[in-house]
Automatic annotation (TrEMBL):
GO terms for biological process: nuclear-transcribed mRNA catabolic process; ribosomal large subunit biogenesis; rRNA processing. It comes from Meloidogyne javanica (Root-knot nematode worm). InterPro entries: Ribosomal_uL10, Ribosomal_uL10-like_sf, Ribosome_Assembly_uL10. GO terms for cellular component: nucleolus; preribosome, large subunit precursor. Pfam families: Ribosomal_L10. Belongs to the universal ribosomal protein uL10 family. It comes from the Eukaryota. This is 60S ribosomal protein L10P insertion domain-containing protein. GO terms for molecular function: RNA binding.
């Protein structure tokens, strides 16, 4: 049988997909840390800068562990239902782990007083305008002794400021 002459979609990315083994390893590490540490915090970041995150990780390196992973994998590690949870009350934390879907569309770069999207900020960076405020918002807390407490709903409060030149 002859080969198809249709155009084939070729991926040009160099990033390799995560395998089941790496996801399973992350789940095991999270579960190990749940038994090792007494507290768990869920936080969101706005205007994330890697150099600041490195400083935060180094500051808390002695007595804590920070995980960045896919929300679904983290929810599986914590337990999505009361039957699957590793410790009492952890399924409440897993229910808070939600992502958001964004659409790409045409837009005016920005208007005064509007909140900026990440695409808009990338364009502004090309014009020499950079974001100056990095924020971490504590969303929830879980403790072996006290249980689960929600501080704030996961809201998109990414008010981004520009450096005025």
């Amino acid at each position: 049988m002859p080969k198809s002459k249709r155009d084939k979609i070729v991926s040009l990315t160099k990033v390799k997909k995560k395998t089941k083994e790496t996801k399973g390893k992350l789940i095991d590490e999270v579960r190990e840390c749940i038994s090792k540490y007494n507290n768990l915090f869920v936080f969101s970041t706005a205007n994330l800068r890697s150099n600041i995150l490195i400083k935060i990780r180094q500051h808390f390196k002695q007595n804590s562990r920070i995980f960045y992973g896919r929300n679904g994998v983290m929810a599986v590690a914590l337990g999505k239902t009361p039957e699957q949870e590793v410790e009492n009350g952890l399924y409440n934390v897993a229910q808070m782990l939600k992502g958001k879907i964004e659409l790409l569309e045409r837009f005016v770069v920005c208007k005064e007083g509007d909140k900026l999207s990440s695409d808009q900020t990338k364009i502004l960076r090309h014009f020499g305008r950079r974001l100056v405020e990095f924020r971490i918002t504590l969303l929830a807390f879980w403790s072996k002794k006290k249980g689960f407490k929600r501080f704030k709903e996961a809201v998109d409060d990414n008010t981004e400021k520009m450096d005025e030149d």
